[in-house]
Amino acid sequence: MDFEFKFEVTAVDPHTQARNGRFHTPHGIIETPVFAPVGTQATVKAIRPSDLHELGATLILSNTYHLYLRPGDELVKEMGGLHNFMQWDGPILTDSGGFQVFSLSDTRKIDADGVTFQSHHDGSRHRFTPESSIAIQENLGADIIMAFDECPPPNDYDYVKQSLTRTHPWLERSLAAKTRGDQALFGIVQGGVFADLRAESGRFVTSLDLPGYAIGGLAVGETKPQMHAVLDVLHPILPQNKPRYLMGVGAPEDLVNGVMRGVDIFDCVLPTRLARHGSAFVLGGRMNLRNAQFSNDPAPIDPHCTCYTCRHFSRAYLRHLVKANEILGHILLSTHNLHFLINLMQQMREAIRQGTLAQFGADFLQHYGE
Amino acid sequence: MDFEFKFEVTAVDPHTQARNGRFHTPHGIIETPVFAPVGTQATVKAIRPSDLHELGATLILSNTYHLYLRPGDELVKEMGGLHNFMQWDGPILTDSGGFQVFSLSDTRKIDADGVTFQSHHDGSRHRFTPESSIAIQENLGADIIMAFDECPPPNDYDYVKQSLTRTHPWLERSLAAKTRGDQALFGIVQGGVFADLRAESGRFVTSLDLPGYAIGGLAVGETKPQMHAVLDVLHPILPQNKPRYLMGVGAPEDLVNGVMRGVDIFDCVLPTRLARHGSAFVLGGRMNLRNAQFSNDPAPIDPHCTCYTCRHFSRAYLRHLVKANEILGHILLSTHNLHFLINLMQQMREAIRQGTLAQFGADFLQHYGE
Asked: Does residue B15 contact residue B30 with C-beta atoms inside 8 Å?
């Protein structure tokens, strides 16, 4: 059964590159621009699927490397696929495993065919190739799957250039290995911080007719201006009628800057990771709930926020939970931080519809200082 | 403002000592017999207040020792009391701190006036007396507060007998120290496993006209027959028209045996603690989700259970979460285990209304083998 992964552009902002879209997947329509919470091990940490729905999440991401190692993609397949396993009936995206494997810098070995690596659990040896990554992602059964690529150190020109000679053939092999008709394979543009390499990679990747294109290798050490420059280089190269996914990016200011530069999809562990460290997104920057100044503060994190956490709980109580390392602290801060990003995307979608995104973005960036 | 802590007995089982009751508190009526989830640090671990409501919890317990040390009872008072602080609008019971302090066996010193102890956080020195325990509990502001008592080793006759000469004056001092009219002070019967000491303590404690009476010092090392014998000794001594609270007891079979022996209120950390260790209550005993046999088991913990966890998730997924130490595993297993006990109490309340508790209890105890 071949699914038609249609992307409809429903509104275009007159003053920026932003647009509203509807991306059709077998598990529902994703309204873009969208932020995808990350469920690394088949769970968005500390959040139940029903609460994700309530938060307004549509697309979530899960990780091929982690699920391959535990519980194993064959097991997930046997349990009816990732949607059934984790009981998320909305769209899911899986990464290719490449990023995690290349992060294991001490214990992995790259060759032209693939990567050999050691499990971070038990040191056991494994190998990923474009073919095995696609096979794993077919077992997991996400709606959107990613080509196997290398995420190189962004500032090393020679390495990045050389790396493209692996990543591009791997995209062709990923596409050739794909057998399921109900999964959208996105290609990934690499090229580090270098305009010429990004352009080269963008032209190659978009020479293949794919249902979507991703921008990889950012938020890994480059500066914000460098990130924006890469998006600006790619804007005219990436086709307007396909969704654009900026991988691993989720800081609020990056979402705003990304949307204004035409990005449709984002994902990041930041909101849930910050939460587990006791930090909350607020206009004006991050609020560290460990701070003693909040010990007797009866106000919620943000008096204007409508999330479950802010409707009920004081900073004083949240600080107590964080200091006591209580699970409820993780739950409540994760809830707030996810709501913050999902709500920000919703506001941007509305601003695009109204043609006012430039003003919205300027206001936001002025008030949101980290 | 003096609140009338009325206890109405609404049904009496014809074949056991069980009864249904309604205990009126400033934060609502508690239908008894009832199981109270424990929120040691002002949170029932891994469960949001709204989920506690959905689970059918009415009364919850919190701990004086822990809250005195962190965040401090003065702070909780400043934040509007425990109900407001933790956003639980139902009835709350606080213990006296005695049990926790006496558990610090290496670092506490008992005298006739009170107990000096060291904080388990930082080793700092503190002192509890009946007067200070009541003052702390008044700051916390629970609906039901407990007299300061000693929980002695249950099998040492001479020690337990001697301990009663402290605990009984401490009850009188607790009562004298009480200033608020909107909190019900319960006295605590001690006496270890010894019938004569339990009877002596029961007669002394009930000689004071209190809104409820607790049975302390059980589930701390005695056998099940010894626990039942203590309840049988106390049944004719405790007044019928006051609620009876069996402290710290919450294993399913103990709830059934306790209700059949006239107990109205229970509390225990067991359901949430077991959950964090990967175990679930089921008829037939406990299910350890770490067990490899569940790795590809598509069934829920209990196909007949109506909790959120069993309505959605397979044993295979729960095992994955437990093995991966994911917070969602704690959330889902805590949800199931609390539902199991709260639902068991609900079934027992219904059986008492129907006059069929003896049969229900016999059936349950036959099927629930640990």
From this structure: no
